Amino acid sequence: MDLTRFALFVLFNMAITYTAQSTGFLAGATCPITIAVFIAPVISVFLSAFGFSNKYADMPVIFKPLYNISYFRSTFHGSFHSIYGLNRADLPCDDFYCHFRRPVKFLREMGFEQYDMLANFFWIVSFGSILYAITVLSVWFKLNKRGQQKELN
Fold this sequence. Notes:
Layout: H1 2-30, H2 33-48, H3 64-69, H4 71-84, H5 103-110, H6 117-152
Helix pairs in contact: 1-2, 1-4, 1-6, 4-6
């Protein structure tokens, strides 16, 4: 089971790498370079704020849609669940009292009890693929626009 956990952990991290790269490519393809080097990290930091630091129940209503679309959140939950979920056995602890000896308690404390790994993995990859498609379309339109301007001159 440890190989499965490791493989899922690596798979989720590769998926976020794919999606983060597509975000950077889209920013670079659609914005001037001086703005693109600023806007891509800002978008990433903004989305990461809705994945790591807040629980869904504690979030203001206005930010809940951003929490739901954050691919950082999906990856964090998937990585976390691949380590502590999937009916993991109790963790070794020699202390008299170990609150998080049972991984289920850790998942419950973080609010990750109900998590669909497959659906969230497909969400991350689909989001990245959509961003790649938009990037390709924007580059295609820019190149065609440039070609049409040369024909007019």
